[in-house]
Amino acid sequence: KSAGLSDINFTVYCGTLAHTPKLGVLEVIPNAVVGVDQDGIIVFITPNAADDPLKAVSAYDPTLSLTQVDVINTDLQNESCFWFPGFFDTHIHAPQFSNNGIFGNSTLLDWLEKYTFPLESSFKDLSIAKEHYERVIDRTLSNGTTCASYYATIHPLASKLLAEIALKKGQRAFIGKVCMDKNSPDHYIETADECKQATLDVIDHIEKIDPEMELIAPIITPRFAGSCTSELLKWLGDLRESKNYHCQTHINETQVEIEWILKQFPDYNTYTDIYNDHNLLSNKTILGHGIHFTEYEKDLISKIGCGVAHCPTSNSSITSGEARIRWLLDAGINVGLGTDCSGGFTPSILEVSKHALLVSRHLVMGSKNEKEKLTVNECLYLATMGGANVCKLQDKAGSFEIGKKWECQLIDLDVQGSALDIFDYQRPNWKENDYVEAKSKFQNLIDKWVFNGDDRNVRKVYTNGRCVVNKEY
Ligand code: GUN
Ligand code: FE
Questions:
Q1: Where in this chain does the record put each Amidohydrolase-related domain (predicted)?
Q2: Which residues contact 285 (CB under 8 A, 6 or more apart)?
């Protein structure tokens, strides 16, 4: 059985919970006891009960045999340890992982030709796919990414393998076989017919290996309008609609790209109209980048309910632009974060959160509009709940709520050798009767974590109530 589907006992988790259930709001529940049932679902959250966790269990269900309850304690003496929801990476190219950091001075279209297509093409070889896909899932899980929306390559066998590896390692994942039947090199292109066949084949396989869609789901993935014919886009759009599948693609990433695309689709005035007219947009569609939307496009995607994957690391690295996230959020659009490896150089959503914050400040330096600034808590919301909304998993994960899955990471800011220094005076004391002061100290620790933390601070990771990463130091 996969790590994320193994049998578990009723379990209680003790310690401080922190999450961002609403945009900009950090909620802290000190010394909580959380009950998680055999399906991995949170059934109770009791604050200030960690001194006697079994008492909280009895209060929940007096008939539960306490000998069958597992108790997981964080180190309660350590006020810099807390549970945080797992991160959502709403846009990541699994096969590009080995190119992280390698992009020189390129911009999107030459970057694709020079770095990306040659690497992706090599995934025809399943042994290459296996090595790379094992590593990308290990690495993202280790960074606290409990759910990722992956672009694979055009190859059906390698795409199926990615699904199997995510399932085996227990990561929640959307798996997209990439579709591309034009403007691609001879060694890395498919015909529309090959693409249709392969797309159905991969979806079928995913539905077989995880029939209840406990962890893995297919996602329709036209790479972008620049690499798909109108015929293929329309077929994919109709397939999307037939079973209300998730869908992901790139949109409005660079000005040069937009001009190039609009030349290929002369009947359309905007990039969004192309996708909309090919039936690719729904509230289960994730639009990657979305930097250069017009007012009209922003209103259209808001009306349809598409999510946007904000990829500030990639957008800065390959000089694509600065997405106006406040403007999208104000229009009621769901926004999550994406590493976009390897347009982006890091597999860490924590690091991308920091870049989202910095890019928002760069926007302010141009616009002088302070409202565009994103706060630490807003960026953490995008990394968790925002991503859950984009993936339509808001009832399953993204925050700690009764009825949701226990899907989180145990953060330890005091790990020896990590990049964080916590001084004793900075530690919150929840036991003293000054909640306001403790909360303010805790917020400072959260800020330090976002700016100076990394995967060394991730001690354990859970998906679907199962432990999928456990680091012993
Ligand atoms: N547009 C089309 N393909 C890609 C890709 O692989 N990465 C990014 N960032 N943009 C794209
Ligand atoms: Fe991308």
A1: 84-468
A2: 240, 246, 247, 248, 249, 275, 304, 306, 307
